[in-house]
Amino acid sequence: MKKEPRNLAALLESASATVQPMTLKLGIHKPTVVAIALGALLLASAAWAEEKKVNLGVSIPAATHGWTAGIVYWAGQAKKDLEKEHPGLKITVKTAGSPAEQANQLQDLLTATKIDTLVVLPFESAPLTKPVAQLKSKGVYVTVVDRGLTDTSAQDAYVAGDNRTFAKISGEYLAKALNGKGDIVVLRGIPTTIDNERIEGFESVMKTYPDIKILDAKYGNWNRDDAFRVMQDYLTRFKHIDAVWTGDDDMSIGVLKAIDQAKRNDIKIVLGGAASKGMIKTLIDGNNPLIQANVTYSPKMIYDAVKMTAEARLKGEKLPPTYLIPSVLVTKENAKEFYFPDSPF
Amino acid sequence: MQQEPIKQDRAEAPTQDPAWRVAGRWLARLHAIGPVVGLVLLCVAGTLLNPDFATFGNAMNVLTRTAFIGIIAVGMCFVIISGGIDLSVGSMAALIAGCVILLMNRLGLAGLSPVAAVTFGMAFALILGALFGLAHGLLITGGRIEPFIVTLGTLGIYRAYLTYLAQGGAIQLDNVLSDVYSPVFYGSLLAIPIPVLVFAVVAVIGGVILNRTAYGRYVQAIGSNEQVARYAAVDVDRIKVITYMLLGACVGIATLLYVPRLGSASPTTGLLWELEAIAAVIVGGTSLKGGAGSIAGTVIGAILLSVISNILNLTNIISVYLNAAVQGFVIIIVAFLQRKRK
To answer: Do B169 and A223 touch (CB under 8 A)?
Structure first.
């Protein structure tokens, strides 16, 4: 990030270097006029320095499931809104289907698009750490979103959803809704750091409620079909369940279908997460008694990350090294604020 | 060369009378006995670990979820016996599901009665499946491209188009249509869920075609030795195209059972179904080299695979991190049992 001021200084130097011979050539007739004109020019470029040009690249995974589809959508929205707002800003969005493809795209963004700022949501943490570090060493300002790199010196800023808080809010809500007593089954996601942080956060809350029992926590892979199967087997295995925590609205859909099919009415709450538009709609309409709340872990975080990065860079400022986007409990009362009907998620 | 047929004696499919020589029957039985032993052992283990395993409800759950893979595996069995392979079935199922939902929604909006819209959609699933199969068959026979490559290509193509249609999210079936359609998955006849009945019918028809028709014999002959089949005036290309179309139609059937379950298609629909279907066929005693195979074995193979994950869900003795490993061990052990008995 030191590159920008240095460039500006170089610009000013070369500008003043050309000023000298020019004024000399123009003679003494109108030196003041020229000086004023040049001064005005310099002032103008100083004003430009306030709102500089930023060439920003956004590198994200392709839309392979609901949440990443939301990421792609919100990245597009960020490009649309911010480019309109800031004429000096150019945003290039690239989606990748695999870590290798994303690494190649990062190189292209540097060499072909010549970006000076990067917002990246790494496909996987480890394989993309080196490629991102490469860009940073070439002077690109790097903001990493959601999935942290294995070497944090490869990033300037880190913007992410807060998985522990997400899980804690979910846990506290369920504990309160159950009056501190009951049997809960959990569906986990895909074995990842994100999933581990969530289950740890959730379990740490439940430890403070001795009368709440987590019956089991199996992987549903953030996938409707797998969640349906796992829930069917939970229903076979446990004769009494008070609440289900999936932490994911896609999985909740499979869970609800399985409960419907089994015609079980002991379950009082199914708590999903990430605030998909379908579930928020259900919450607003209030047409499913099992759906009473949601917790945000919104793909809109990419929008916030791009906005924060772009606006800071336009002013030549830097972001705080870590910024956690807090999760929020959504209930019927505030659900409207989280309903984005145009988003695919 | 040819393997004698195996009858539907062990699976949930209704038995049909084997009118074959006794010797042939025993030979076939021996061939199929590996997977059967594996399945029986698994069921005993499951019951010991959790008595709920042996309930009627759980059995129906397992068979219902086996239906998708099982139906596809029946079609896959033909393709593999003929010496081919199809890697695209999971993606194909996803794309068909997406297209069918979009069509039904359109027809519903166009003012067609929900029942008519759903019926058209179901017919469309079958036609689309057969057409995809036709495309595979023509590329493989006429285009002379390896089936592995053709279907690896379409695997990517189908899923990408589904993802594109869904914009990465999910394609949802309209609620009214969903209510009309849902009995196809959730309904039952004489306490047997519809998908299980359909699975049984498909398996029986598959068995009859494979063992009792000239076409079935040709399929086995081609897989056994394509050149000899050609010299014997078998229209190899036509037979091969038909096997891929049959598989496509099976994928269509599986899809029209799948759609009413969740009323949606998303990029995770049908993920890895191809591997499960191929595994069911091979675990069931069909050689990946082709030439011989059995529908009954395939059915048992498919059930076996879903019983494993069912048992793992019903118990807590193994770390969730190791679930996939258990599946792997069981597959290898069953394949080993089946080889020894050959």
So the answer is: no
